[in-house]
Design goal:
Jelly Rolls; about 30% strand; globular; 2 domains; single chain; about 15% helix; zinc-finger; alpha+beta; four-stranded antiparallel β-sheet; Herpes Virus-1; Putative zn-finger transcription factor
Length: about 200
């Protein structure tokens, strides 16, 4: 999910052990276009699903409760030099790996052009695929679909879709706008990363 939206500049990976680690950020990591530069925490584990696991995250002694183990934007809470990060809570996977990513967010026009040139978006958003998946669901095998109404407006921003997308596990035809979805989730340290249409977890 992340690759079309961000250009990764540097990556630092730390295995979660005692729940505390430190990461050094260089001045150039936080320089550049401040409107586009981001520092993200990316949580990865073989345990599935991780969406239900929420932890207490502390970044340089500033604590945030109920943070999901997904992708978290901590740009406003880090500094050049040594940064201390701690994770605590119950049910944390033993093999949890925390990736500290320094990225630049892709400009909207470049992103739209890139997706158009590739001929594909984040996921295949064809109505035929969504309807096929819907019919494959055993709960819907006896249903007859005569027509499906789809809005061209994003349910998040109430405006026309620019980059339509759905979660990989979504069973509906309706799309939401990927740009609006990204902005909404990166604006908080408690991102939901859930589909605004069906409320399913979206894998990032």
């Amino acid at each position: 999910f992340l690759l079309p939206f961000y250009r990764i500049l540097s990556t630092r990976k730390v295995w979660w052990g005692l729940g505390f680690f430190s990461v050094r950020l260089l001045p150039q990591d936080l320089a550049g276009d401040l409107d586009r530069r981001r520092v993200l925490l990316h949580f990865v584990s073989s345990a599935k699903p991780m969406a239900a696991c929420k932890v207490t995250l502390a970044v340089n002694d500033v604590q945030f409760a109920d943070v999901p183990l997904k992708v978290v934007n901590v740009s406003g809470h880090v500094k050049a030099g040594i940064n201390s990060i701690s994770i605590s809570g119950s049910g944390i996977p033993r093999d949890l790996c925390v990736g500290v990513l320094v990225v630049d967010r892709t400009e909207d026009l470049k992103l739209v052009a890139r997706l158009s040139d590739d001929g594909q978006g984040i996921h295949d958003v064809s109505a035929a695929k969504a309807l096929s998946a819907l019919m494959d669901d055993k709960e819907n095998r006896d249903a007859i679909v005569d027509c499906a109404t789809v809005s061209l407006n994003c349910p998040l921003k109430r405006a026309r879709l620019v980059v339509p997308c759905r979660g990989a596990d979504c069973r509906h035809v309706q799309c939401f706008d990927a740009l609006a979805y990204l902005r909404l989730n990166e604006a908080t340290v408690r991102p939901l990363w859930r589909c605004p249409v069906c409320d399913k977890d979206v894998d990032v």
